[in-house]
Please model this.
Amino acid sequence: HDALPILVLDINDNAPVFAKKRYKASVPENASKGTFIVKVSASDADKGVNGEVMYTLRDGAESASELFKIDERSGDIVLRGNIDFETAKKHELKIEARDHGGLTDSCVVIIEVSDVNDNFPVISLTSFTNSVPEDAPVGTTVAVINIKDLDSGVNGQVSCSIGKNIPFVIKSSLRKDRKS
Model:
């Protein structure tokens, strides 16, 4: 008695599964559009078309889709817009992997923006004496200036100097504004 061959067909009974639930990447704020940031990857145990995975970006923040895009086939995330460290130091993206049967998994991608020295120090005159009497004592304050640089860390540090043959000196008040 010859046994008849039985053909077992695969059904879509497995959801995609991301390799990691949380991905981290860093990108400098002056990176150009099209810069590769990170690749996400999900696998599906089903065979053939049932095991094919498509990736989509689910906005974590309103502007996420304006700044980043994901290749629906490869999972490569690239820069789509201009990022600015002084506007946002970090972006959180929600990524979904979906198979052809509609089964899904999701992960989070944290993209940290690194600071670049791209801001000039800004000097503002907060008070000024129009005239100084010739008998004014040494150490008399004639002007108060404020200097700010929006960059962070070493990039935000400033130094001031005044011409050598001028009878004035710059004294630091040593007051530091704290940024939150």
Summary: The chain is about 0% helix and 35% strand. The mean pLDDT is 88.
